Amino acid sequence: MSSKGGGTALTRRNYRLASDTEKPKAAGIVNEKLLSDYLHHVFPSTKPGPAVASLRKTLGFQDLGAHLERLLSEGEPAEDSRADQPVEGRLGPQPVVLDHTSGFEGLLFVDDDLLGVIGHSNFSSIRATTCVYKGKWSYEVLISSQGLMQIGWCTLNCRFNQEEGVGDTPDSYAYDGNRVRKWNVTTTNYGKSWAAGDIVSCLIDLDEGTITFCLNGQSLGTAFTNIKMGPGIAYFPAISLSFKESVGFNFGSRPLRYPVDGYLPLQDPPGADLTKAHQLLGYIKTVLSTSIDTQDERLLERDCAVWRLHGEPTVLITLAHIFNHFAPLMCKVYLVEDVLMNFLLGILEGGGSVGEHPLIQQLLDLFWLLMEDHEVNECLKQLMMSLLRAYRYSPIIPDLGFQIHYLRLTTAILHHEKSRKYLLNSVLFDVMRSVVFFYIKTPLRVKEAGLEELIPTTWWPTHFDKEGKDEREPQDESADERLRRRAYERGCQRLKKRIEVVEELQVQILRLLLNNKDKTTGEASRYIFLNKFRKFLQENASNRGHPTALCPPEYMVCFLHRLITAVKACWDEGSRKSPGSFSSEEAYVPPQLFYNGKVDYFDLQRLGGLLSHLKKTLKDDLASKANIIIDPAEIQSTSMDDLDEDEESGATQRPSGAAAMGGALSRPSWLSSPTLGRANRFLSTAAVSLMTPRRPLTQPEKVKVRTLAVEQRTEEDIEGSHGNDGLLLGRPVEEPDQLIADKSLLEIVDGIVMMYNLSVHQQLGKMVVVSDDVHEYAVALKDTEEKIERCPSRRADILDELQKSQKVFAEKLNHLSRRLAWINATIYSKEKMLDVYWLLCVCIRTIEHADNTGSLFAFAPEFYLNVAMNAYSALKNYFSPANSMEELPGYEETLTQLAAILAKHFADSRIVGTDIKDSLMQALASYVCYPQSLRAVERIPEEQRVAMMRNLLAPYEQRPWAQTNWILVRLWRGCGFGYRYTRLPHLLKTKPEDANLPSLQKPCPSLLLQRHMAELLSMDKDMAASFLNSVLNQLNWAFSEFIGMIQEIQQAAERPERNFVDTRQLKVCATCFDLSVSLLRVLEMTVTLVPEIFLDWSRPSAELLLRRLAQLLNQVLNRVTAEKNLFDRVVNLRLPGLESVDHYPILVAVTGILVRVLVDGDRQGTSRAASVLLSDPCFQLHSIQHLLGEGGDSFSSSASVTSAARPAVGSLGSSITPPPILSAAGSSSERKHFSLHAYTDYISEEEKQKVELMLAFLTEESKQAAASTAPTSEEDLCPICYAHSISAIFKPCSHKSCKACINQHLMNNKDCFFCKATITGVEDYSKPTSS
To answer: Taking the model in full, what pTM does it have?
Structure first.
């Protein structure tokens, strides 16, 4: 180490200078005797020699090198010569790694160190390079994901494939903690379930012939005995794992976490180096705890915690000699983990805050001073990786002691500025490493995590309403239950406090990484973090499906919450220092970030489409509104080939998967300078070239924007400087010029929103399953207890089984309720809820500001709208009932703001993506379902409400109309005829005990929005006609599809060879039925609110719409009410998936429309409606009688004709033998006759009377019509429908038809039926009277 020698020589020059002075200072070099005593004290000889200092040989710096070499050689183990010899019982190379050349089957990703592996095919297997045939051996597996894996031992003869792995062949043995089994051709139960973060030890005893497994150091018992042994038999460590599962191996390259007495690791520890490292560390400790008193010329003992690097030459030269030997050893992972990490952890063991232990800072200064750069870099890297592993694979104990221990050391190291910047640049964000530090894993095994001691009393809800939902505050809670609940809540609070200690340390780490004041050693930490964070986001956004780069969602959730806490703290700190800037509670992302090219959004979709397209189409708007000119070279490069995604220049934002993994991209010519260095993995990031600073009083200059790599951005590019807006470049005139203290935080806030969109929301939804399980088991337990009470005493066998079930359910609930306490503390706590709420508010404000910029709104990324909708959904569905949304500050106002966004943007022409439009529509549909959010929609300004209703009433063609229709239906539910149910009434009649029936929200109609709808439809006649025409068209389609589907289902059901129906077909069938019902309800709503659309024949299309309505209603009635018809048969099959298909929903909807036009209207309207209904050739009076259950008894002539005409259908059904369905009265007459009288809970007396009035009215009208109708000759009938008389003549061609046919035809086509001439007019036609 010549360079080290150079360092020492320099120090010696200092020594000579110092020795020239007559009186040495306290900090200087000491006299010869004192120096010799000091060096003998630091480096005591191990050989016996004179104990008295005066008799010892004088030791100076000249002899120190040789003395130290001699001491180190004395310490080396005598048997070291044996290190190169192969150990008996083991064959293979050292170090032991995974055999990536020949020892694998299937597709796998193997880490660079050949110790980590990720499965990339159905069931991949791989073995190690070294085998054992004698003795006792062990290795450890670090479980990174808890899925399907089989871990153990195999021989060279084992042949694996995509279906069979370790344990599936005769000479292989495996443990599978996913299914909790052991495998050796056959399988039996064994061990415990593992979770991500556990360590499995695999032990083989080839003297006794046994294999044992341990989980986190606890033996699971002997798994296999009498394993095959003998000549030619040797066992390799091996694993089989399914797709995306991942593990890390430790064969002995690092100290085993749980060594077992008597068992050797497969790889030898570096014994000689280990002894040397411990010896050198001992010398360092002695230096730290010894001070030289030059006044009294003596050595003093002192506490090493107070040691400071003061530049004392004696101490520095001594340390330099030690580091000559110590530094190279600290590049080896085993020694860093075993020696250095344990030493540093020992320093912190005394407790107190990390800041109270300055020794670690002093030691790191020493490392940077006395070690080569490459050595200190490698040492810090290995130290940080060891800490990451230690943190990630530590078991959970009640006080989270391990986690706190490792986080404190990490914090202490990151306090050191130079080390922090090196780690940030080189280690922490390479493939999501640092995110591990912000994760708190959820214990799978409650007992081992100590939750039984922490939460001794468990509790779960025991009071449920009729729909199986737990009541929040049951009035009849017993005293015992109340005590249990309070004890459980106290336990949860204790747990939460312990978790908060860890969270606080994690936030401290992030605060250090977000430090923007540490500029003494180059760029501040925050700007390094910012660029690394952006790269981390890109890898997760563009590598979906590439498991090596993806951050697990459970890590992302914790990282998001810590980052929000840290960013808000930094933001508020900055805003306190600069008066006038706004606080984190008012934070949003200014719209210029979306188009000024300062922040990279990679290949993420914008609201207006692709970025390259927007830059071309909106370049004039950018110039006029934001004073930004897109560089012409960029537009040219993007327009060369818009379709070729792989060769887009950095100006566009669509890196292909291959390019994202390291391929160089073509760049504009003015970027191809040699100073840019390596090809950029991080694509399309933009920076700016400023021409002139903005002056507010004069006309602002245009700023030319061009793209540059993210690594090239400086602090000035982000924060800005004199006349430079930094990230806020290109402020549009609509955007207020607000002071933002730290502009760099804006980009982190933007990244947080992106993180939530990438995987956090899905993970929040996934973790709710534990709460659902608690609820299900609680319902099951309550049900079992009720059965035990009802069980007759003579049936001891049943009682015994019920008590066993009760015990199982109670045990499961004890376990789950403790696990739920952990999840509620780490994921669904009040603080986490406030974080998600803050994120929702940030998104809302960002969208509002972007919306104000007019056409530039198209540049906003789609994920802002997604996160706004998803965050609201999470707050409403995932965080309750533990935390209520109503308690959030400003909750009502936020709800109204979100309602305004949904109402405005679901039909916004600036948004082009079909997926985001669909999401907005679904969110609005969900919003109008619940009273609170519906009231928020009603609170938005009237102008916006009316615009929303206008968009909802646009014609249903060329757009996703089903969602719009659901929204209108939800505004009506609760007002329609018999439309107040929360459960489908027919289901409650057939399966009243089933708690899992589909349940609807309680009706909450909006009279205000109904009024807007009525005003719009009555004032805008064209819109009303086109809207209703489209609703009738869709109803015709949906009901026809439904009838076609049930015909196929009926045919499939009666085939003897195939008695099942495709579930997808059943789902489509049920959907068509639901659509038909909802379209009928919208028609009922329209006819109730604006009857004149159909009944005021002065409106141009009223008569036509009424005729079409009558035609469709008659078709529906005839299909559903005919005796023993197809509809009856399919309903009586009671197929799973078709629960919603029944007479009630559809017939009540039709009845509602008929009652409105025939009973509730004025005299003229009702007579018009009756005449149109009766003149329709499909009208049958018995269909109306059927509604009141009279059709089958009265046997009117039309009814008897219908039943006689369909003998085949009756015989068809007899082969199926459907089950009898009981009516409310308990008889099987329900199967024959539907009757509104049976649904007294859902249909009021008044409604029934109206139906009876309608039936009487139609009976009378039909008699009169039959008496007065004169027979019509065939020539006088319309040649299109043959149902009505000719009543219209076309101009100019003079062809004729009835008015209904031509009006309907003209709504979609202007050509004549017969001659294809363009129709210019239609006139009334009446047949001339014959003379």
So the answer is: 0.83
